[in-house]
Amino acid sequence: MKKIISLALVLLFLISCSTVPITGRKRVNIMSDAQILPASFAQYEGFLKENKISSDLKMTNEVQSVGLRISKAVDKFMRANNMVSEADNYRWEFNLIDDPTVNAWCMPGGKVVFYHGILPICANTDGIAAVMGHEVAHAFAKHGQERMTSAYGQQLGGVAVAIGTNNKDPKTQQLWNAIYGIGSQVGMLAYSRTHETEADKLGMVFMIMAGYKPQEAINVWIRMSQRANSGQAPPEFLSTHPSNETRIRNLKTYLPTAIELAKKYNVQ
């Protein structure tokens, strides 16, 4: 029996292995859009009903405008690179929540939330674009689906990994809530450092594609570092992330590459 299970896992790994566009990182994901997106959209809708959407029309419009520009750039990239069916599955939406938490997140399928608390860190439109690009990158690279795949393997012992499970199944719902914690104040899973670093890089490329200044991605993390050094408790946004100093260093190093990739892939 153990041999059969091991063989099944090997076959599952081979079948579900793919490559993240642009970065080229290998990933394992057994969660199809048809499986995960309906639950993602439902969770997002529930979150909006339970949390106060900002009444600040100016900042809401700015967040949504930036989100629209970046998502359009990503959509153009996908359609130009044989990812039309994936592009069709995204339902981009951007909301600003009246909450002092220093955080932002994106659900699978393109559902984004910004909290008011992160706006001082963003400081300007390009700073908003830096954070937005990072969050959109999580959805683009399917980091949530990877995390779900990993969690299924841990919870279910890797056997069958619940392929074909619908989102009404209690075990699936329990797993989803455990990973995403939508009912909590933070409202988003803790990605791995690998995912965070990849989202930083992809986000920089995407903000350039959308016409924003990539240097501001570095400045966002400088401001975040200054906040962390002020004696305040680290924001939830940084809970499992690379250190501010590491991100600043990595983004400075990656900036020339991001500019070249944006030129290569941008669709006019």
Describe the structure.
This protein has 268 residues and is mainly alpha-helical. It has one domain. Helix content is 60%, strand content 7%. The chain has helices at residues 2-16, 33-50, 57-80, 84-89, 119-122, 125-140, 143-155, 170-180, 193-209, 215-228, 244-265; strands at residues 17-19, 26-28, 93-97, 104-107, 111-115. The strands form two sheets. Strands 3-5-4 form a three-stranded mixed sheet, sandwiched between helices. It has a two-stranded antiparallel ribbon with strand order 1-2. A hairpin with a 6-residue loop joins strand 1 (17-19) and strand 2 (26-28). Helix 3 packs across helix 6. It is globular, with a radius of gyration of 18 Å. Mean pLDDT is 81; it is low at 4-15, 156-168 and 181-189. Belongs to the peptidase M48 family.
List keywords for this structure.
mainly alpha, two-stranded antiparallel ribbon, three-stranded mixed β-sheet, 268 residues, 5 strands
The total number of structural domains is 1
Q: Order of SSEs, N→C?
A: HEEHHHEEEHHHHHHH
The biggest sheet amounts to: 3 strands, mixed
Query: Helix count, per DSSP?
Result: 11
The level of helicity is: 55-70%
Rg, Cα atoms, Å:
18 Å
Distance between the termini: 55 Å
Strand order of the largest sheet: 3-5-4
Shape: globular
User: How many strands?
Assistant: 5
On the 0 to 100 scale, the average pLDDT is 81
- Would you identify the regions where 5 or more consecutive residues have pLDDT less than 50? 4-15, 156-168, 181-189
Structural category: mainly alpha
Amount of beta strand: 5-15%
